[in-house]
Design goal:
Blueprint: E1 2-13, E2 16-27, E3 31-35, H1 42-49, E4 57-62, E5 65-67, H2 71-77, E6 78-81, H3 93-103, H4 108-121, H5 137-148, E7 155-159, H6 167-179, E8 185-190, H7 193-199, E9 202-207, E10 210-216, H8 217-224, E11 228-233, H9 241-249, E12 254-260, E13 263-268, H10 271-284, E14 289-295, H11 299-308
Parallel strand pairs: 3-8, 3-9, 6-7, 7-8
Antiparallel strand pairs: 1-2, 1-4, 4-5, 9-10, 11-13, 11-14, 12-13
Helix pairs in contact: 3-4, 5-6, 8-11
Length: about 325
């Protein structure tokens, strides 16, 4: 069963084309990673799917209901956490969730039960008497997910839910999202590849308003990724790594070179050429190597291959 579907979705803002014929399908019950660089059209797509914006052209359905034509009916079936969720800072978490429950028409007893259930789910039961204005960003994000779940949605939209969190806050929110698997369909819009790898069943990569590819993680790796190489040098020669990386980026077999401390991660489009030339170039640059190996390709490698170079490569 398809929970989310768009066909030929377009959205323009004057001369800017935010969406350019977007086709998308998301299976019910999955956690779908909507992945793309900033400005790719992720938030615009979510605003249309939730009924907050109208497309210039094309059509969209959520749980089989067309949106935004029937946005009130869609709103009863979905939950939505925007990138910067607004809250009344003087409220406590139970007051906020009770207020949201009233909007959805829950009875007093239903609201009381749902508030207790959700505060336990998101780990905020112990701070239920505190004002939201004093919450950390991670606590606010968890509360935002709770308010998005008040109506027991069939589809949950999360727009960059962990982008502004520290590592501890990200871990908490991602674990919470994982716990929702099977309870509803979850669409996570993000540009953080590691988060998608951790929690998502299926990945859709969008760039310049168009869907580049949609597949499960294993299928993406099998279809697009080729081995990458990692070169690590000792501290004495680490200062030469950037200059060497710039040289490698100009070689025809190199797709990307990412530096992380004393380590260079090199994605290639010709494994045999890289095997012949990568190590000699490092030695010629005067690098003293402590590690040189072929590594398992990652979702980041796929992303750079599809988006970093402007699209799929043969």
């Amino acid at each position: 069963m398809i929970a989310i579907r768009t066909t030929g979705l377009r959205k323009t803002f004057g001369p800017v084309r935010a969406l350019d014929g977007l086709d998308l399908e998301v299976e019910a019950g999955t956690i779908f990673g909507f992945l793309g660089p900033n400005g790719a059209g992720k938030t615009t797509t979510i605003r249309i799917l939730t009924g907050l914006a109208r497309p210039t052209a094309g059509r969209a359905w959520v749980t089989g209901i067309e949106t935004p034509a029937h946005r009130r009916e869609v709103a009863r079936r979905i939950g939505y956490l925007p990138e910067e969720p607004p809250f009344y800072p003087w409220m406590t978490p139970p007051e906020l969730l009770d207020h949201v429950g009233r909007i959805f028409g829950l009875s007093a007893s239903e609201r009381a039960d749902r508030v207790t259930e959700l505060l336990e789910l998101v780990g905020l039961a112990g701070v239920s008497k505190r004002r939201i204005g004093g919450f950390s960003h991670g606590m606010r994000q968890r509360l935002g997910i709770a308010q998005a779940l008040v109506n027991r949605p069939e589809v949950l939209f999360l727009d960059e839910p962990v982008s502004a969190l520290d590592p501890a806050g990200r871990k908490e929110v991602l674990e919470l999202i994982q716990s929702l698997r099977g309870q509803c369909t979850v669409l996570i819009s993000t540009h953080i590849l590691a988060d998608v790898e951790r929690v998502c069943d299926t990945v859709g990569i969008i760039d310049k308003g168009r869907m580049v590819t949609v597949a499960g993680q294993d299928e993406l790796l099998a279809r697009y990724a080729i081995p990458a190489f990692e070169v690590e040098c000792n501290g004495e020669t680490a200062g030469r790594l950037d200059e060497w990386a710039a040289q490698v980026r100009r070689l025809p077999w190199a797709d990307s070179v990412v530096i992380d401390g004393p380590t260079a991660h090199v994605v290639v489009n010709d494994v045999q050429a890289a095997q012949r030339e990568l190590l000699p170039t490092a030695l010629q640059a005067g690098l003293i190597l402590t590690r040189y190996q072929v590594v398992r390709p990652s979702l980041e490698d796929v992303f750079l291959r599809l988006v970093g170079k402007g699209g799929p490569q043969a």
